[in-house]
């Protein structure tokens, strides 16, 4: 199986360009990486992965941020705004209340546009430039559109974003707007937007930069590499488990790929690989359903709803890559309610870490799995928080304290504080 943790190195095909090629995860067909625009396999429509003749080792990594990991990436440099190198926060109170040996928060909200999408875009937009395309497009629940708009404008390219009308948080629309994207509001959910953008891309109208694009996931692998390096530095061991929110399952696929490549390079034993745990909102949980049912394919949910609008997704397109990642690492998937998400958002805020609702799903999921005894008290765990609090100011204000009107003089303020 091409997506197993066997440690078997891939055979280098004639299509390889400087040791890099694209390979179909379903039928194994290979393609040159930068000759043509292609998102899926010409033969069977399966998902593609970037493959490398030379696999990265920890010793190869130097510098800071996403481009520290050039040895694990398809290009030497990107269209960059200094993404990556995000904090791996200690959270002592949360660690104690969850009741595990160690808990760290990898806060991807600290990227330039406030989400992990920047890591994918610095690579994806550079590949677009390499391919010579001039118009970039994505469907988005918000963060991808913000990152695409920023990186597209930095790369001097036109950007087009399709968003589900009324379901994108204010901060994200503001970003896409000011960075100059054309914003097309679709009367439908994210999955419909993605169907349309895929059609546009296949007609050659724009270059697709959703996580279906295999190059974007290469940039997102660096989240996993940073977590491993951080844990090795602080604990001399990799984490037992990484818990992350799941929408399209791009990150789950990317982290698993990062670890598979380290196993193939002999840098990590297969049984050392952190267990991957995907968390979805109860109202949008097709991955959880597939894991619980032992299914190889997910069932598309047409009706989805959650306060965590970033992961309001019913058809996770990367499921064929992510399901093996969860299973092969001995991980699992779990759903949480909107109330549990908001509670976790408050818990993180109480440690000074401001995240948007989808991000807090990771902590809510960990708490639930610990309560169920799936996570042991001796475990060291990293939770991924994917987006910044300011992305969704309305959700933050609703979850937090209300402003209190007071008189415009000190005595009145003191009186109010005593009442
Ligand atoms: N968390 C946040 C804050 C997100 O914006 C997303 C995805 C996810 C988690 C899920 O990540 O797709 O890799 O499983 N947002 C996409 C967007 C869909 O359009 O911004 P995934």
How would you sum up this structure, described in words?
With 419 residues, the chain is of the alpha/beta class. The chain folds into 2 domains: 88-114 and 214-399, Rossmann fold, CATH 3.40.50.1100; 117-208, Rossmann fold (3-Layer(aba) Sandwich). Helices cover 37% and strands 15% of the residues. It has 13 helices and 13 strands. The chain has a 6-stranded mixed sheet, with helices on both faces. Helix 2 crosses helix 3, helix 2 (117-131) packs across helix 6 and helix 6 packs across helix 7 (250-264). The longest helix has 22 residues, at 214-235. It binds ligand F0G. Ligand F0G is lined by residues 115, 117, 140-144, 211, 245-251, 310-311, 356, 358-359, 386-387.
The end-to-end distance, rounded to whole angstroms, is: 67 Å
CATH fold label of the largest domain = Rossmann fold
State the shape: globular
Tell me roughly what share of residues is in helical segments. 25-40%
Biggest beta-sheet profile:
6 strands, mixed
Kindly give the count of domains. Answer: 2
| Individual helix count | 13
The helix/strand series, from N terminus to C terminus, equals: EEEEHEHEHEHEHEHEHEHHEHHEHH
Rg, alpha carbons: 21 Å
Order of strands, widest sheet: 4-5-13-10-11-12
Mean pLDDT: 97
Kindly estimate the percentage of residues that lie in beta strands according to DSSP.
15-25%
CATH secondary-structure class of the largest domain = Alpha Beta
CATH architecture of the largest domain: 3-Layer(aba) Sandwich
Low-confidence stretches: none
* Secondary-structure-derived class: alpha/beta
How many strands? 13
